[in-house]
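Incident review: delayed structure delivery

Summary: a single-chain prediction request sat in the queue longer than the usual turnaround. Root cause was a stuck worker, restarted by the on-call engineer. No data loss occurred. The affected request and its eventual output are reproduced below so the record is complete for anyone auditing the incident later.

Affected input:
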Amino acid sequence: EGELESVRSELSEAQADLADRTMQLEVSTMSESREADVAKLKGEVAMLCSGLAESLKERAEEKEQMRKSFGDEVSELEAELTTNHLMKVSQLEAELANELAGSMQGPEVAPPAPVVRGGGGRSM
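Output delivered after worker restart:
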């Protein structure tokens, strides 16, 4: 019986040791699994950040292109308005010169200069 009791005691210690090692293994496995999950999530976050950075860069480029395009259009409109303004001033100068020449000549009045109409707007 002493031997049986000794075997039971060793068996009990072995079971406790096995339970302890099993728990350590489970904890270790969970830790490794979590580390793998964290590494995977870090990779996903890095990819998302990279995609976001690329998207923001593309939007900035689009905005810059729109600004440039808008600036070019404004310059074209300014040039067109300046040209139209100069044409109108020239026309008014010619009409005024004709009127002055007519008033100096007396009753004979020179025919008025042709009137340029339109051209001030931009058709789209």
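Verification: DSSP finds one helix and no strands in the chain.
Action items: add queue-age alerting; document worker restart procedure.
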